[in-house]
């Protein structure tokens, strides 16, 4: 039997190593994204025109793309988010979709805490002032004793909540789509507005909403406890960036740590705020986790194609 033809559509995939070796061993790689950027809908249509499977990132797998990929049987995502994939259309067309849920948990949880510490301790402004030859200490803020609001108690949100609790925080959570039981000592908020009014820290770990509207917007932020710090390593669509800018200007929002944005690469006004720590969507991007995710995605692809061939 002729090997399955596959595409590597994700913008970053190791050009050597176990994952690529495994893929080459079992499949014919018909296309590799070497642009360094996220493929557009038109480019994705061309890339998938004659393949059975794809190693996917956050490219737009719209109905148009899926309909044009007439031989496509498997989308294997490096990561966990599927909001860029039209799942209903994929299901209707018999296209299997896989994710790599386990490998992202620890790196994203660690990155969330790194952003939080950077904001609370004013790490970047202090480091930049030192480079300018200044030695002007400014006070940071303690994490211990704070009320931490966690939005989304999936794998990552639960891990972050556990770590924050170990560091001395009181945990309050809101889950728009609860999947399991939280420890009884964690308090559940009835709404996102209730949550922001009660916490000092808000960390987001939920998928984008089905309607694409932000959870954190101009109707919610004015109700926030003054001095709130917001951390977002989940999805840019969860936060109305204009409303966040207004909150930062007013001082109600003391700072933000952001790894995701509504449009990426991000070059917007939030970067002008010294109390904002921004990173380029790298929360899950560690040497260890990336290798694990890519190998898991390849195994999912190979196994998925084997299932569809049966």
Structural summary, described in words:
This protein is of the alpha/beta class and 310 residues long. The protein has two domains: 123 residues, NAD(P)-binding Rossmann-like Domain (Rossmann fold); 174 residues, Rossmann fold (3-Layer(aba) Sandwich). The chain is 34% helix and 17% strand. It has a seven-stranded parallel sheet, sandwiched between helices. A five-stranded parallel sheet has the order 2-1-3-4-5. Helix 1 packs parallel to helix 10 and helix 5 packs across helix 7.
Key features?
Rossmann fold; 310 residues; 34% helix; 2 domains; alpha/beta; globular; 7-stranded parallel beta sheet
Overall mean pLDDT score? Answer: 94
Termini separation comes to 13 Å
Shape: globular
Q: What count of helical segments does DSSP give?
A: 10
Oligomer: single chain
CATH superfamily of the largest domain: NAD(P)-binding Rossmann-like Domain
Order of secondary-structure elements: EHEHEHEHEHHEHEEHEEHEEH
Brief digest:
By secondary structure, the chain is an alpha/beta fold. The protein is built from 10 helices and 12 strands. Helix 5 crosses helix 7 (155-166).
Summarize the SSE layout with pairings.
Blueprint: E1 4-8, H1 18-26, E2 27-32, H2 41-47, E3 53-56, H3 63-68, E4 74-77, H4 87-92, E5 96-98, H5 105-120, H6 123-131, E6 147-151, H7 155-166, E7 170-174, E8 187-188, H8 192-198, E9 201-204, E10 228-232, H9 241-250, E11 253-258, E12 276-278, H10 287-309
């Amino acid at each position: 039997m002729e090997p399955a033809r596959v595409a590597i559509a994700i913008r970053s995939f190791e050009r050597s190593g176990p994952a690529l070796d495994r893929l080459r061993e079992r499949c014919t790689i018909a296309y590799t994204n070497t642009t360094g950027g996220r493929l557009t809908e038109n480019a994705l249509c061309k890339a998938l025109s004659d393949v059975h499977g794809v190693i996917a990132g956050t490219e737009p797998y719209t109905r148009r793309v899926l309909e044009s990929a007439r031989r496509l049987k498997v989308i294997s995502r490096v990561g966990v988010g599927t909001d860029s994939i039209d799942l209903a259309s994929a299901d209707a067309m018999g296209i299997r979709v896989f994710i790599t849920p386990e490998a992202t948990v620890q790196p994203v949880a660690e990155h969330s805490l790194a952003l939080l510490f950077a904001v609370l301790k004013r790490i970047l402004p202090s480091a930049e002032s030192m480079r300018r030859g200044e030695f002007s200490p400014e006070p940071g803020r303690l994490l211990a004793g704070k009320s931490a609001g966690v939005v989304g108690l999936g794998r990552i949100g639960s891990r972050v909540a556990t770590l924050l609790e170990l560091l001395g925080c009181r945990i309050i959570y809101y889950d728009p789509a609860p999947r399991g039981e939280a420890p009884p000592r964690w308090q559940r908020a009835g709404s996102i507005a209730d949550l922001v009014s009660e916490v000092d820290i808000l960390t987001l770990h939920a998928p984008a909403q089905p309607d694409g509207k932000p959870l954190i917007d101009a109707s919610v932020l004015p109700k926030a406890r003054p001095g709130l710090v917001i951390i977002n390593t989940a999805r840019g669509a969860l936060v109305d960036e204009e409303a966040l800018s207004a909150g930062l200007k007013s001082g109600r929002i003391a700072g933000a740590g952001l790894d995701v944005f509504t449009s990426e690469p991000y070059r917007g006004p939030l970067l002008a705020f010294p109390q904002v720590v921004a990173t380029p969507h790298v929360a899950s991007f560690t040497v260890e986790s990336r290798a694990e995710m890519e190998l898991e995605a390849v195994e999912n692809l190979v196994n998925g194609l084997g299932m569809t061939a049966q």
